[in-house]
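Below is a complete specimen:
___
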Amino acid sequence: METSSHSHTELLRAVRTRVPLDAAQLLSRESVETVAEVLRELPAQLAAEIQQHLPDHLCPDGRGETTTELEIPGTVAEMMEPAVGVLDAGTTVEAAIAYLRGHDNPQQITYLYVTRGKRLAGMVVIRDLLLAQPGQTLASVMLPDPFALTADMPAGDAIKAAVYRHYPVYPVVDAEGGLTGIVRGWKLFERQAVEISAQSGTMVGLDKEERVQTPLWQAFRQRHPWLQINLLTAFLAAFVVGAFEDTISKVVALAAFLPVLAGQSGNNGCQTLAITLRGLTLGDMDGFPLRKLLGKEMLLGGLNGFLTGLVAGAAMWWTAARDGNEQAPLLGAVILAAMTGACVLSGLFGVMVPLTLRRFGADPATASSIFLTTGTDIAGMGLMLGLAAAFVL
């Protein structure tokens, strides 16, 4: 039968069930208008592959190009690439295998994506394709309704979705379910690695994009504003210490233990902060009860604070006793209580600081360490000096 005598529906069906090279040979007998009409009704990627084999005079404008989503920074579209291995649901297994053999880069095809019209209907694993009968259609061997990302999905959400799946390739669809591209699994995990590695810098006010090769003045402009904020928060801690100037002047040994307390509570808070940020990045916080996390971290802080407080309290007792202070045991108890309380509060701050930043639309990792250490310094020093003023003097 001559192709020119096919009705439009028959021609469209014939094109969809052939590999791109055969489909192009079929269409080469048609008029430019007929070819353009058929290509408009095919999935974008399939139409583009067919155009590669059409004579120049039959190609509509924009040969080989497909319409894709704009690459919005921070979304799946930024990592997306054109889909390969897109075939119609009516394509036979024999034709699909011939398509793979004739493809320029078959090693780039991990799955065959099966479409009905423009919608993604399923995907075929190459192993299943090779084990199927030649006359079977892809619709009969495909995995229906596969998991897919959307082009406008934030990269962080895509990473969370990929963490528990570990697929080598993820299809990307639009709002109507049409296949618009694919994202390689390694790209998602590469982005995840970058995000996690950047957290250590953003926690202390570094820009995510700063590298060893970043120019001096650019690094200065990115870092300095946060150092000014850190200075202001340090003044708050200094104000708390200044408010207990009389207490420190009467028990000078307390001054020596201020950095000990601040260091221990700050480190405990940073441990909690790191776990919380990791949970936010990997999606572990989704659905996890906040009260349970707070209880765990505060109890953990209390246990660590008590054990380290025993050592610090014994050191204070020995120091005060060496200086002839009759209240050495009480001072040791003050250090123990302050260390325990400060570590409990640092556990609270380590959870709440990033969650509060996210609540207000900021990056949870952004300078979170600065706000954390300010909170732990004020709480820890205030607690130690307040207890000393209340029970020792």
Residues 3-58 form one domain. The first strand starts at residue 86 and ends at 88. The two ends are 107 Å apart (CA to CA).
